[in-house]
Amino acid sequence: MPVVRATLVTMSDEVTLRDVVDADLEALFVQQLDPEAAERARFPSRDRDTFMTHWATRILGDPQVFVQTVSVDGETAGSIVAWWEENRRFLGYWFGRAWWGRGIGTRSLALFLERERTRPIYADPFEGNTASVRLLEKSGFRRDGTVRHGENTHVMLVLD
Fold first, then answer.
1. pLDDT tens by residue, 87-142
2. Number of domains in the chain
Protein backbone atom coordinates (compact mmCIF):
# COMPACT_ATOMS: atom_id res chain seq x y z
CA MET A 1 0.00 0.00 0.00
CA PRO A 2 1.48 3.39 -0.96
CA VAL A 3 2.23 5.95 1.73
CA VAL A 4 0.01 9.00 1.54
CA ARG A 5 1.48 12.18 2.86
CA ALA A 6 -0.61 15.15 3.68
CA THR A 7 0.84 18.56 3.39
CA LEU A 8 -0.50 21.15 5.76
CA VAL A 9 -0.70 24.46 3.99
CA THR A 10 -0.19 27.39 6.32
CA MET A 11 0.50 31.06 5.89
CA SER A 12 4.15 31.92 5.99
CA ASP A 13 3.48 34.98 8.12
CA GLU A 14 5.90 37.02 6.03
CA VAL A 15 5.90 40.35 7.83
CA THR A 16 6.79 43.48 5.90
CA LEU A 17 6.41 47.21 6.40
CA ARG A 18 5.43 49.63 3.68
CA ASP A 19 4.02 53.09 3.20
CA VAL A 20 0.30 53.43 3.85
CA VAL A 21 -1.88 53.44 0.73
CA ASP A 22 -5.52 54.47 0.50
CA ALA A 23 -6.68 50.85 0.32
CA ASP A 24 -5.16 50.21 3.79
CA LEU A 25 -7.38 52.77 5.45
CA GLU A 26 -10.51 50.65 5.14
CA ALA A 27 -8.82 47.66 6.79
CA LEU A 28 -7.36 49.86 9.53
CA PHE A 29 -10.77 51.45 10.09
CA VAL A 30 -12.44 48.05 10.50
CA GLN A 31 -9.67 46.83 12.84
CA GLN A 32 -10.15 49.76 15.22
CA LEU A 33 -13.87 48.97 15.43
CA ASP A 34 -13.13 45.66 17.21
CA PRO A 35 -14.62 46.11 20.70
CA GLU A 36 -12.10 43.77 22.37
CA ALA A 37 -9.16 45.63 20.82
CA ALA A 38 -10.59 49.01 21.86
CA GLU A 39 -11.14 47.70 25.39
CA ARG A 40 -7.60 46.30 25.67
CA ALA A 41 -6.07 49.52 24.40
CA ARG A 42 -8.49 51.73 26.33
CA PHE A 43 -8.80 53.69 23.10
CA PRO A 44 -12.30 54.37 21.79
CA SER A 45 -13.23 53.41 18.25
CA ARG A 46 -13.94 56.27 15.87
CA ASP A 47 -16.74 56.63 13.35
CA ARG A 48 -15.68 56.54 9.68
CA ASP A 49 -15.54 60.32 9.11
CA THR A 50 -13.60 61.00 12.31
CA PHE A 51 -11.19 58.14 11.59
CA MET A 52 -10.53 59.16 7.97
CA THR A 53 -10.12 62.85 8.90
CA HIS A 54 -7.68 61.95 11.68
CA TRP A 55 -5.60 59.83 9.31
CA ALA A 56 -5.67 62.44 6.52
CA THR A 57 -4.70 65.38 8.76
CA ARG A 58 -2.91 64.14 11.86
CA ILE A 59 -1.10 61.09 10.51
CA LEU A 60 -0.60 61.17 6.75
CA GLY A 61 -0.85 64.97 6.63
CA ASP A 62 1.91 65.63 9.19
CA PRO A 63 5.44 65.38 7.77
CA GLN A 64 6.88 64.72 11.25
CA VAL A 65 4.80 61.56 11.63
CA PHE A 66 6.32 58.32 10.42
CA VAL A 67 3.74 55.62 9.76
CA GLN A 68 4.00 52.20 8.17
CA THR A 69 1.43 49.59 7.24
CA VAL A 70 2.20 46.17 8.66
CA SER A 71 1.59 43.63 5.94
CA VAL A 72 1.44 39.88 6.56
CA ASP A 73 1.53 37.72 3.46
CA GLY A 74 0.23 40.72 1.51
CA GLU A 75 -2.69 41.48 3.85
CA THR A 76 -3.00 44.65 5.92
CA ALA A 77 -2.43 43.44 9.48
CA GLY A 78 -2.14 46.83 11.17
CA SER A 79 0.00 49.91 11.45
CA ILE A 80 2.84 51.36 13.49
CA VAL A 81 3.28 55.09 13.90
CA ALA A 82 5.76 57.48 15.53
CA TRP A 83 4.89 61.11 16.31
CA TRP A 84 6.10 64.05 18.37
CA GLU A 85 4.26 65.03 21.52
CA GLU A 86 5.86 68.15 22.94
CA ASN A 87 9.57 67.25 23.04
CA ARG A 88 9.15 63.46 23.09
CA ARG A 89 8.89 60.98 20.22
CA PHE A 90 6.13 58.42 20.83
CA LEU A 91 5.31 55.15 19.17
CA GLY A 92 1.98 53.39 18.83
CA TYR A 93 0.53 50.47 16.91
CA TRP A 94 -2.69 48.66 16.17
CA PHE A 95 -3.03 45.13 14.86
CA GLY A 96 -6.13 43.34 13.69
CA ARG A 97 -7.18 40.52 15.99
CA ALA A 98 -6.47 37.87 13.32
CA TRP A 99 -2.76 38.60 13.80
CA TRP A 100 -2.63 38.59 17.61
CA GLY A 101 -0.48 35.97 19.30
CA ARG A 102 1.51 35.03 16.19
CA GLY A 103 4.67 37.09 16.72
CA ILE A 104 3.56 39.69 14.17
CA GLY A 105 3.92 42.53 16.65
CA THR A 106 7.42 41.50 17.65
CA ARG A 107 8.65 41.17 14.08
CA SER A 108 6.99 44.33 12.79
CA LEU A 109 8.15 46.43 15.74
CA ALA A 110 11.74 45.28 15.19
CA LEU A 111 11.50 46.29 11.52
CA PHE A 112 9.95 49.63 12.43
CA LEU A 113 12.64 50.44 15.01
CA GLU A 114 15.32 49.82 12.36
CA ARG A 115 13.72 52.62 10.31
CA GLU A 116 12.66 54.97 13.12
CA ARG A 117 16.00 55.84 14.67
CA THR A 118 14.93 58.61 17.08
CA ARG A 119 15.99 57.77 20.63
CA PRO A 120 14.74 57.97 23.18
CA ILE A 121 11.33 56.87 21.95
CA TYR A 122 8.37 56.39 24.26
CA ALA A 123 5.22 54.27 24.39
CA ASP A 124 2.43 54.33 26.95
CA PRO A 125 0.08 51.35 26.67
CA PHE A 126 -2.79 50.83 29.09
CA GLU A 127 -1.43 48.96 32.12
CA GLY A 128 -4.02 46.20 31.72
CA ASN A 129 -2.86 45.49 28.16
CA THR A 130 -0.22 43.04 29.32
CA ALA A 131 0.43 41.73 25.80
CA SER A 132 1.36 45.22 24.61
CA VAL A 133 3.53 45.94 27.64
CA ARG A 134 5.26 42.57 27.16
CA LEU A 135 5.83 43.27 23.44
CA LEU A 136 7.50 46.59 24.19
CA GLU A 137 9.66 45.18 26.99
CA LYS A 138 10.71 42.27 24.76
CA SER A 139 11.70 44.89 22.16
CA GLY A 140 14.06 46.64 24.60
CA PHE A 141 11.78 49.25 26.17
CA ARG A 142 12.12 49.76 29.91
CA ARG A 143 9.51 50.96 32.37
CA ASP A 144 9.75 54.63 33.28
CA GLY A 145 6.75 55.17 35.54
CA THR A 146 3.07 55.59 34.83
CA VAL A 147 0.86 58.25 33.33
CA ARG A 148 -2.88 58.88 33.53
CA HIS A 149 -5.07 59.27 30.47
CA GLY A 150 -8.49 60.16 31.80
CA GLU A 151 -9.49 57.47 34.27
CA ASN A 152 -6.91 54.96 33.01
CA THR A 153 -3.36 54.32 34.15
CA HIS A 154 -0.82 53.65 31.39
CA VAL A 155 2.71 52.30 31.71
CA MET A 156 5.33 54.71 30.42
CA LEU A 157 8.06 52.82 28.57
CA VAL A 158 11.17 54.18 26.92
CA LEU A 159 13.75 52.83 24.50
CA ASP A 160 17.07 54.65 24.84
1. 999 999 999 999 999 999 999 999 999 999 999 999 999 999 999 999 999 999 99
2. 1
Sequence-ordered alpha helix ranges (H) in the chain: 22-32, 35-41, 48-54, 104-115, 130-138
- Dist. CA 126–CA 120, nearest whole Å: 20
Strand partners, 81: 67, 92
CATH number for the domain harbouring residue 49: 3.40.630.30
Round to whole Å and give the CA distance between 158 and 160.
6
Model pTM above 0.85: yes
The DSSP bridge pattern shows strands 88-95 and 121-123 to be parallel
